[in-house]
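DATA SHEET
Item: assembly model
Revision: 1
Owner: S.N.
Input lines:
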Amino acid sequence: MAEGLSLPVFDYTLRMVALGSGALGVVSGALGVFAVLRKQGLLGDAISHAALPGIALAFLLTGSRSTMVLVLGAAAAGWIGTLAVMQIVERSRIKEDTALGLILSVFFGIGLVLLTYIQRVPTASQAGLDRFLFGQAAALVGRDVALIAGLGALALLVTALFWKEFKLLAFDRAFGESLGIPMRTVDVVLTSVLVLAIVIGLQTVGVVLMSAMVVAPAAAARQWTDRLGVMVLLSAAFGALAGVSGALVSSMVERLPTGPTIVLCISVIVLASLLFAPNRGLVWNAARRYRSRRRLRVQSVLVDLYALARQHEHLEHAHSTAAVRAMSYGRGGTLASLRALEQRGLVRRAGRDLWSLTPAGIREAESLLAVGDREAP
Amino acid sequence: MTAERPAIEVNDLTVAYRDRPALWDIDLEVPSGVLMAIVGPNGAGKTTLIKAILGLVRPAAGQVQIHGRPYEENRRLVAYVPQRGSVDWDFPTNVLDVVMMGRYGALGWFRRPGRRERELAMAALEQVGMAAFADRQISQLSGGQQQRVFLARALVQDAQVYLMDEPFQGVDARTERAIVALLQELRASGRTVLVVHHDLQTVPEYFDWVMLLNVRRIASGPVDEVFTDRNLRLTYGGRVPFIAAVAPQGTGVGGDGRVGDGSPGPGRLAGEAGVAAAKRTADGSER
Amino acid sequence: MSPELEIQLVAVVVAVACALPGVFLVLRRMALMSDAISHAILLGIVLGFFVAGDLTSPLLVVGAAATGVLTVALVELVYRTGLVKEDAAIGIVFPALFSVGVILIARYAGDVHLDVDAVLLGELAFAPFDRMEVAGRDVGPRGLWVMGSILLLNVAFIAVFFKELKLTTFDAALAGALGFSPALVHYLFMSMVSITAVGAFDAVGSILVIALMIAPPAAAYLLTDDLGRMIGLSAAIGAVSAIAGFWLSFLLDASIAGCMATMTGVAFTASFLFAPERGLVAAVRRRARQRLEFAQRMLAIHLAQHEGAPDAVEESRVDHLHEHLRWTPEFAGRVVRESERRGLVRREGERLWLTEFGRAYADRSFVAD
């Protein structure tokens, strides 16, 4: 589990780890967008868990520990798992969440049986398979990175080619069918590419945490943009950022496993996005609500002052803060609102704690009231 | 190209969910250039009929022909407007992009929409009065605006036959009028429009043809011929009638109590009572 | 008791204890909450371990279960913002909590007896070695007592809140209107799921807990419509899978927990394929029968409609049917033969006549709705 001691930045291993993690972040981030938009975020979880028996079986059948063979086994099992989920949902009354949980855990159980079986077969050492459970980024070598990059590029290329079909599938499948596009085939292609994106990350992040690399970058990216293309690019960038920074941080701090560190990095990005993204972010929304509440309060103080002044022959008749406050039923902030109005030249101080409307303030109050009248039913 | 054969020809169409028929032995001929409503109670199979015509559900029997050729061959002549609620409007895309989706079928594999598609989409948006919203994110649209966007998406398909699933559901009165005007424009230009419709009151006002459906086709034809109180009773009467002749006759209905011809009289009143009764069952959504 | 027997006993108790809350997870469409909870409790276990100092402390169970409930609350919090959908909320929250747990273990607990493999995968084979002693007397494996208590707690919970669980599961709105608090029942229930998951991780690990919670109820769901019976069947399927899993592991010399999960998968597959009414085989058979039955009905109605019409002769010819009803000639032949056998139609050469019975049958086809 423990990674090596802190390493120089240009160390070969570190470079490979950072490159591999970054590449898988790009691919899973980009493909994750479609999974999240189709509300299939947890399909990634099922696929990554379901891949485990494939890895074990690939090793059992070929005796090879090469990443290529194991990744292919993982892809086959992940694909079969997805197919099983779809079939269960389509052909029985089992709902999707149950089917996902079932396939995820049962496949994982089968994988565990095979792994423990392999460990006890005297000819095979367990080394090499265990790394898929939690990922072992430090073990990445040039060949692995090339494989991640190659398969990842393939996945991205297919996505680019089927861009508009994937978009249609995620947005309005029935309409796509009515156009004569074979949406089932498109679905199979997209699912296959998603499987590819997931299995190339297993070695680095591990089956347990890989689903986060599918869901989190996309969920973060969604907060920053309303365009699908931008979302895919952003999501890929977030994935890469998390991959590289996670790999770097974990290499610099003793006993900090890479996979979980990458996941924490992407979690921080998600949290920041949920809070601070313009337009959608929670802080942004709270600020907007606060501003609009304040604007309303200031307006209502102005109108209150106008109403008070109407009771006198002169509209610029001054009133005390207390008189205005009395009209606002303890909404609070009366003094602050009056000061804000004073700054805007709508109200002026007519003495100590006395306020009166300026001509501009009278016009503003009247126009506010007129709008109010027009909008009233 | 559209003259001789009916725009839509449905023969012996039967659709079953499990062992119960959702549509039974539907025969339907829709001539070119009519604006036709499909009405019937909940669960009558209105949406199923549209989906079956589009090949989205597999029929147990029957054929659909569009302008004289099987649907598969003349698919390009048909445009579809699904129910507004069938998609996630929080999807990250804008209005123009959604409208351009209408061109995806014509574009074929691997080709991206380009300037031509953009121009067509803008023209369609112009037509539905949404050109100013082209760059708007779709989650910021009102229900009526969403519906107009869906209409525009169908318009760019430049089809001969339009199938629409409840385009008036949940839209404001102004949008409803605008959509009706648009549908009538389509009809005027020789297009055929089939609309799943819920509000019986407006059938005579909006449409020139109507189909009354309740698993079986009760009647179809020009509104002033078939939109009668008797047919409405047959359609909304609770049970699915087998053969029109077997159904209750003369049960207090004043002959062909026509609806919507504007003439006062007992027939008209009876018709309205029937419509009101039917409307109660027609409310709510069908699924 | 022999160790083998003790292991099997623990396995059965764990399986049944998991299957009981699993029934409601499946019915409430919250199966993936078990995924989230069982992963996230790793963090609770680690934190509890730091505080309590050993893995068997009750404090640890409580702390870890609290993490499970916290996970549920966090998922809801994220989902409620409206910024992400529910599946994404789950997929964001639990990997983050799990990662913190793994990192804590790697950094601070490396030398003590707590490693991720053990938490994730469990090891039932060790169950007999951890004994429970009362007043100096050995009373059996500790795991048996822990899970036995949790099982009893689950049984009691379901017995006491059966009505509330049932109501909130099938009609939350009605439950609220009747004065039950769906939220309260929800959190009580999620606490039970968390406690069960914590108790079971020791034996089967936190991922295979999901299999024991989901697979038996899913299998039972295909076998019955009755909630009470579904609970009983789930428990039984869980127990049988546990024992079968033990013997499979004996045979393969592989992980017991993995074999148990595999057997629950086998049980589900069997149910999916062979359930008397909802199984795949039954469905295929029924569909074939229905297709024939439906076709006869169509034939009767087809004939009835054209009876007496000018095109009756044309429409009533056997060789015409496949064209008109889109049947293959073979299928049309079968339908006609079957209809003749049932007395729906009479055949004269190529011409078909509807019998009186057939006409009534056609009539009935419509009014039945």
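QC remark: The first strand of chain A starts at residue 319 and ends at 320.
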